[in-house]
Specification:
This protein has 13 helices and eleven strands. By secondary structure, it is α/β, with parallel strands linked by helices. It comes from Geodermatophilus sabuli.
Amino acid sequence: MSVALPPGTDITARAAAVLAEAAELRATVVLSGHVQPDADALGSTLALAEGLRRRGARVLATFPEPFVLPASLAWLPGAEGLVPSTAVPGSPDVFVSLDAASPGRLGELAVLLERAATSVVVDHHASNPGFGAVRVVDPAAPATVALVADLLDGLGVTLDQRLATCLYAGLAADTGSFRFGNTRPDTHDLAARLLATGIDHAAISQRLFDTAPFGWLGLLSVVAGRAVLERGVGAGLVWTWSSTAEAAEHGLPGEQLEALVDVVRSTEEADVACVLKGQDDGSWSVSLRSRGATDVARVAMALGGGGHRAAAGFTSHQDREGTMAAVRAQLCQA
């Protein structure tokens, strides 16, 4: 599938044209966010999938294994229509990757970048190396949902409460409820458009950020209690660790561990917060956050991961001590 556009055409317009043609031809479009999708990845996927359906495309929305959503996201409109990766065609007409900083973040679905007739990549990670046939990659965007909103405009899809709920969830999550440095004037412009549809933004935020099982308090107490402050590492480092097994002891799913770093990052004496999350396969999923002085994307990329200047991560197959030694070494180079 190819669309002839004049030289110099805006990349968002090009992607919208590719997707519009797919819809007009009733082509099969597979959309996927990254593994263990967050609100931005899932909100982007669900909103664009619904927009393309309204334009007439045959749409399948999915995400890589493990095919499990946390309760904090499973309520988003359209989530009930997600299908496992095993249910999507091996060679779709169009494959759209959303909020994945690298092909590796697409897990078993990464092969569709090559097997699909056309691939479109929509992302806002600074560490994105550039992949896919058509790329809408803007590191200055506050969230991938902001780019999806532009694509929906380009497709002529009117924003309503269903779409706005998905977009607002991703926007609020990736801007820290508009507290982070990636919030720009046009971020608030987009938020105003979404609020104007009549969404219940307070309810969305409560479900995303302020709702957790009682067991979360016990887990948080244990994990915060073992936190370590290392003032002499880089601009200051605070770190702690947990595991999916420990979460289970408190009656919690493993994805509940993702919220730990947002508590640890509040430490005033450390510019960088690091949380190691032990996985069932023995690896460590490592979350990094910066208060501003350290580019944690550089740290994560050096260790095989990626992300943003203020929020990044990587996977380590070393033991806990070896993983932290690698983090310290990178921070001391910063």
